[in-house]
Structures are given as C-alpha cells and as structure tokens.
Design goal:
single chain, 0% strand
Length: 183
C-alpha cells in the first residue's frame, strides 16, 4: 500500500514539475513576443517624428493630423497595457496612413527622397510589427490555454500564473482612414 501511495505521489510530483516547466516556457514565449512588439513600436515611434517634420515642411496646413500623431505617440510610449496600447497604435497607424496619403496633394513631398525613405522604413516596420503581433498573440493563446486547462490550472493557480492580454486592434481598425485635405 505504501509503495502504491509513494508511486502515486511521485507521479503527481513529476506531473507538477512538467506542468510548471511548460507554463514557464509559455509565459516566456509571451514575454518574448511582447518584447518583439515593443522593439517594432519603438522603431515606429522613432520614425513618426521624422515623418511629421517631413510632411510639415511641405504641408503646413495639415496641422491637426500632425499634432494628433505626435500626441498619440507620446501616449503610446507611456502605456504598458497591451489592450490600451493596441488601440493607441491603431490610431497612430491610421493617422500615419493619412500622412502618407497627403503626399498625393503635394508633388514636392511626393518627390522628396527623405519622405520616400521614411515611407519605405515605415512599411518595413509595419511588416515586422504585423509578424510580431501574430507571434505574440499565438504565444498568449498558448499561455492562456495552459493556465485554463485542467489539470494544469491547478499548478497555474497555485504558483501564480496569470492569463495574458491579447494585442487587439480596436473597432476603428475595420474602418479605412478618411483623408480630408484643406483648401
């Protein structure tokens, strides 16, 4: 009887160690995914002021969009919540798209090498950011599954593992940005 009880306790301990290590791996994947998003957002945040200045030089009366992008960038850099950051980044993405469309109304801006280089860099950042978001959300899904799945949830709750937030685009992401050019 004691041998059976000992083997059962040993099996339970082995499973607990296995579940714990898997949850740690999943949590670390989510953290690594968030780190990748953070790197791409920092690259975008570094490019936005340069883009704003390039557009300001040619299209000064687009001041509202320029100020909004600058304010959104400052808010995004101070935010740590993935859900809140996703909404801010979606707004930045929308306003940056407006800035990029403004070039159609200003042939000199359209021909500017500086503006074209910034535009290429932003497209590159957006591609990397899209991949990083997919990776992060996949890692979060895996972590959340592990934290919620029985019997792993017993280890997760006992040792303080928590669900992570997905990086979600806001409702405004489904609506294409409108460009309103001044007189």
């Amino acid at each position: 009887m004691t041998l059976v009880l000992g083997l059962l306790l040993l099996a339970l301990l082995g499973w607990s160690i296995f579940a714990f290590n898997r949850l740690v791996r999943l949590r670390n994947q989510a953290k690594a995914g968030w780190s990748d998003i953070d790197v791409q957002l920092m690259r975008r945040h570094d490019l936005v002021p340069r883009l704003v200045e390039a557009v300001r030089a040619y299209a000064g009366h687009e001041q509202g969009v320029l100020e909004r992008v600058t304010e959104l960038r400052a808010q995004a850099m101070a935010t740590t919540s993935p859900a809140r950051l996703a909404g801010l980044e979606q707004a930045i993405e929308s306003d940056v798209a407006r800035l990029l469309v403004i070039k159609e109304a200003y042939p000199e801006l359209k021909a500017s090498e500086n503006f074209l280089a910034l535009q290429r860099d932003l497209v590159d950042v957006e591609d990397h950011l899209q991949y990083a978001r997919r990776f992060y959300n996949g890692a979060v899904r895996g972590l959340n599954d592990g934290v919620q799945r029985f019997p792993d949830l017993l280890v997760a709750r006992t040792l303080g593992f928590k669900e992570a937030e997905f990086f979600r685009a806001g409702e405004e992401a489904a609506v294409a940005p409108k460009l309103e050019l001044g007189p």
